[in-house]
Amino acid sequence: xxxxxxxxxxxxxxxxxxxxxxxxxxxxxxxxxxxxxxxxxxxxxxxxxxxxxxxxxxxxxxxxxxxxxxxxxxxxxxxxxxxxxxxxxxxxxxxxxxxxxxxxxxxxxxxxxxxxxxxxxxxxxxxxxxxxxxxxxxxxxxxxxxxxx
Length: 149
Prior knowledge:
This protein has two domains: 5-64, Endonuclease III, domain 1; 75-132, Helix-hairpin-Helix base-excision DNA repair enzymes (C-terminal) (Endonuclease Iii, domain 2, Orthogonal Bundle), CATH 1.10.1670. By secondary structure, it is an all-alpha fold. The protein has helices at 5-12, 18-36, 44-48, 55-64, 75-84, 92-102, 108-121. α1 (5-12) crosses α2. It is 52% helix and 0% strand.
């Protein structure tokens, strides 16, 4: 907070939506100090009440900071859930709920990290590399790609 919104913007200007993010980080920091004695809350409800924090961010914090077995659905995981048929859904919440039913409890702590990496590097949005995919044989994606050349 001591840095201020303008200086914070200068530090994060290389990331998307940096103006809004800086505004939210300053407001969020103020609320953490004023309402939570400077501590990050450990409940989804309290996290989502912070400026700029939605369900995905709350799930990331619960998972990474507090070891809760949550699944944070970002664009990669949303695509994977739908493309593979593992957890189809029209909303991130629907995909999250589907994945919670499909992913065994012992893997939920790290599952969203593994799925994000798979979606980022193998099951890419525009040019999926199906020939490199470990689950291509059981994947529901109809337009599978072949190795180049």
